[in-house]
Write a structure and sequence with these properties.
By secondary structure, the chain is an alpha+beta fold. The protein is globular.
């Protein structure tokens, strides 16, 4: 468990990442830069996986081994824990 609630990312970046993954998208750092002007996708995904238990898969692609992130197929959305900035997504899933 992390000792701090500090993310070093803007709350909107975290929300964007969670929303994109829940929508079934495969996202990369380039996607985050283009859509959210963010720079910390790997850190966000790592923390979602390590602290919140998200079943995030990472696949390196291309000559630069760029990481592409997605959620494991068949995951249980109801079992996900959400960071504070993405709590609205948890409430949407219950509807």
């Amino acid at each position: 468990m992390f000792k701090s609630d500090r993310w070093f990312s803007r709350p909107m970046q975290i929300y964007w990442c969670c929303r994109a993954l829940l929508a079934g998208r495969i996202i990369s750092h380039r996607t985050e830069i283009r859509e959210e002007k963010g720079w910390r996708l790997a850190a966000i995904c790592h923390r979602l996986k390590a602290e919140y238990g998200w079943p995030i898969l990472s696949e390196p692609r291309g000559p630069d081994n760029t990481a592409y992130y997605r959620l494991r197929p068949g995951f249980d959305r109801a079992a996900l824990r959400f960071p504070p900035s993405a709590q609205a997504l948890a409430e949407e899933g219950e509807a």
